[in-house]
Amino acid sequence: MGYLNKTTQVLDAILTTKGRELLAKGDGSFNITKFALGDDEIDYTLWNPGHPSGSDYYGAVLENMPILEAVTNESSVMKFKILADTTHLQGSPDPTQMAYLSGIEDQVNNGISLSFNQTGNDGRGTRTAVTINPTTENLKQTETYSYTLLNTNMAFLYLNGDETDSGGFNSESRTKFRSSQTITTREKGDTINIKCKAISSTISPAKTTLIVRGRTSGVTASITVTVTSAS
Q1: Fewer CB near the terminus (10 Å): N or C of the chain?
Q2: Separation between Cα atoms, residue 220 and residue 66, nearest integer Å
């Protein structure tokens, strides 16, 4: 895998063996009827609405990033397609709008702030928690969500206010290497909570990312999580 030279090329394609066979026939049997879009390479936290040069430069960093060459292994790229199909959208089979997440706009734009206070709670310290409860717009039906927290050394996820429903990630023990946690809502009305763990003031503030994904629509959102420690 390499990078494309964007000064001369912005699109790259690789045909499968079957595709090359059909193209070689030259009889019109090579006919692309479907395609999928993905944004695996894009880190949307680099979108900068506070750029001093104005709105034309909000995406300057993203636009200047290199583009990867085409890859045929779908387990490496395009795992989460932007729009897998349109049957789940309102207005199907001819929808006019894509699905998007609402209810978490403030958390997406401003992040989630959690704090650990070493005093109180009989010397065990106190920890703050926040609820994440998105809904999906332009969807025919309600959907469940998956949540992935990239660093469980500083926080953990749990379902419906029950800290024991966290897959064991509520433990204060640390892993040598950063460990992620994925938790999925089971039915309509389920909520996800995120709670900070005890962290040292020497690494405060610590940051990680929470990724929210609709399991039917495939729509995603990234939320920056910041944990601070106070004595």
Answers
A1: C
A2: 22
Residue extent(s) of CATH 2.60.40 domains in the chain: 100-230
Per-residue pLDDT of 88-118, as tens digits, reads 777 665 666 778 899 999 999 999 999 888 7
CA distances from 191 to 74, 95, 140, 213, 227 (A): 31, 29, 20, 14, 21
- pLDDT tens for 193-220 read 999 888 888 888 889 999 999 888 888 8
How many residues belong to the chain? Answer: 231
Q: Which pLDDT score is estimated for 92?
A: 62
CA–CA distance, 49 with 58 (Å, rounded to integer)? 5
Residue type, 194: I
Q: Considering the domain 100-230, what is its CATH architecture?
A: Sandwich (2.60)
Residue 44 to residues 26, 39, 111: CA-CA distances in angstroms?
42, 10, 13
